[in-house]
Amino acid sequence: MSNESKGNNKASTAKLNWLRASVLGANDGIVSTASLIVGVAGATTSKGTIFTAGLAGLVAGALSMAVGEYVSVSSQRDTERAYIEKEKLELANNPTQEFEELAGIYKNKGLSTKTAHLVARELTDTDAIKAHLEAELKLDEEDLTNPTHAAVASMLAFTVGALIPLLSVVFTTQNLRLPVTFVAVVVALFITGFASATVGGASRRRAVLRVVAGGIIAMVVTFGIGRLFGTAVA
C-alpha cells in the first residue's frame, strides 16, 4: 500500500471517529436535556421555570462534555507522547534490537525472513521512529489527537442536540408542550441512531430501537419523578 493510500485511510478513519463522537454527543444532549425538561414539566407548568432549567442543563452539559473530553484526550495524548519518547530512547540505545523487533513484526504478518528484513531496513533508513511507531503502536507523531478540537466538537454536538427539546418547549403552548417535545425528541433520536449505525456499519434497526427506547424511558421516568416529588414538595 502506498504512503498516499495509508494517509487517506488514516484521514477517513479520523473523520469517522469524529463523526461518531459528534453523533453520540448530540444524542447525549437530546436525552439529558429532554429528560430534565420533562422532569421539571412534571412538577410545574411555568414556561419560564422549564426553560430556565433546560437552558441550565444545556450549558452545564455542554461544558461538562467539553471539560471531560479535553481531560480524556489530553491524558491519552500525554500517554502517546510518553510512548513516543520511550521508543526514541530505545532506538537510540538499542538500534540493532529494535531493527530485529521491527523485522519480526512484518515476519509475523506473513512475510519471509528475507523480505521482512528488507522492508524493515528500507523503513528504518527512511524514518526509523515513524516506522516503529506505526508498526508497534499504531501512532503517528505528527497526527496526535488535539484535545481542544475534541472538546469544542463535543460541546457543539451536545448543544445542537440539547436545543431540540429546549426549542420545542419554548415555541409551543402549554397543552402541546409535552407532546411536541416528545415527538421532536423521538424523531431526533431516530436520526442520531440511524446516523451512528450508518457510520459504524452496524444494524440500523437495532441502533434506532435502542436509542429511541432509551430516550423514551428516560423521559417517562423523569416525568414521573417530577410529578411525584413536585406535588409532594408543593
Describe this structure in words.
The chain is mainly α. The protein has one domain (19-233). The protein is built from 7 helices and no strands. The chain has helices at 3-41, 47-93, 95-108, 113-137, 147-170, 174-200, 204-233. The longest helix has 47 residues, at 47-93. Mean pLDDT is 85; it is low at 1-8.
In short:
This protein is mostly helical and 234 residues long.
What is the averaged pLDDT score? 85
Strand-residue proportion: under 5%
Structural class: mainly alpha
Count every helix, treating DSSP H or I runs of 4 or more residues as helices: 7
Got a strand count? 0
* Uncertain residue segments: 1-8
Gross geometry:
elongated
Helix content: over 70%
Radius of gyration: 25 Å
Order of helices and strands: HHHHHHH
Total tally of structural domains = 1
Distance between the termini: 69 Å
Please summarize the sheet with the most strands.
none
List the topology elements.
Blueprint: H1 3-41, H2 47-93, H3 95-108, H4 113-137, H5 147-170, H6 174-200, H7 204-233
Helix pairs in contact: 1-2, 1-5, 1-6, 1-7, 2-3, 2-4, 2-5, 3-4, 5-6, 6-7
